[in-house]
């Protein structure tokens, strides 16, 4: 029964969320995998993509960066098929983080730039600010210091507009570290 499978998938995802919060990562991964297994093959829906993102986060926290990147990419493709730009942006951002952890800095930069574009299109200023922080760091690692400065300045300005004092302070500290 399709309804029972859907309910089992949702329950598995909820269990995964709770276990992840408790830092029981192996159990959380198993719960997300179970949730994904309850969905019929080739099913395209936001729940599948969200579970892929969540399992990717767990795998990333476990240090399994290549698997995390593959899960983020699968989630991105699902969100693209669904026409969900916010989900696509989130998946690109996570993919950028995973690629950075793998050591693929230029690929990480490309993924984060795609996330930035989508967040800008959605007028998601908090998402833009977060991605600018990643871009600033990536530019800094790649010794593209002018680009890093621009990203951190824009990030600080956005956090100031959002009334996020901590975010603004952290951005300005990162900016200062580049300028020193």
What is the topological layout?
Elements (H helix, E strand, L loop, with lengths): L1 H20 L3 H13 L8 H16 L3 H18 L2 H18 L2 H17 L3 H17 L3 H18 L2 H15 L1
Can you tell me about this structure?
This protein has 9 helices and no strands. The chain has helices at residues 2-21, 25-37, 46-61, 65-82, 85-102, 105-121, 125-141, 145-162, 165-179. The longest helix has 20 residues, at 2-21. The radius of gyration is 18 Å and the shape is elongated. The termini are far apart. The model has no long low-confidence stretch (mean pLDDT 92).
Question: Which properties best describe this structure?
Answer:
180 residues, mainly alpha, elongated
Distance between the termini: 63 Å
Order of helices and strands: HHHHHHHHH
Structure class: mainly alpha
Using only CA atoms, what is the Rg? 18 Å
Poorly predicted runs of 5 or more residues? none
Question: Summed up, what is this model?
Answer:
By secondary structure, this protein is mainly α. It is built from nine helices and no strands. The protein has helices spanning 2-21, 25-37, 46-61, 65-82, 85-102, 105-121, 125-141, 145-162, 165-179.
């Amino acid at each position: 029964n399709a309804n029972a499978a859907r309910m089992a998938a949702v329950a598995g995802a909820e269990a995964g969320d709770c276990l992840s919060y408790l830092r029981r990562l192996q159990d959380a991964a198993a719960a997300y995998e179970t949730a994904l297994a309850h969905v019929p093959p080739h099913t395209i829906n936001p729940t599948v993509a969200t579970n892929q993102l969540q399992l990717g986060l767990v795998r990333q926290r476990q240090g399994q960066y290549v698997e995390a990147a593959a899960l983020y990419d699968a989630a991105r493709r699902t969100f693209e098929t669904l026409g969900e730009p916010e989900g696509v942006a989130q998946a690109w951002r996570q993919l950028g983080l995973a690629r950075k952890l793998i050591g693929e800095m230029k690929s990480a930069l490309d993924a984060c730039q795609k996330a930035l574009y989508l967040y800008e299109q959605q007028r998601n200023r908090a998402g833009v600010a977060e991605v600018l922080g990643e871009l600033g760091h990536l530019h800094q690692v790649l010794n593209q210091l002018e680009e890093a400065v621009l990203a951190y300045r824009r990030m600080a300005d956005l956090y100031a507009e959002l009334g996020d004092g901590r975010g603004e302070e952290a951005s300005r500290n990162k900016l200062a570290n580049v300028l020193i």
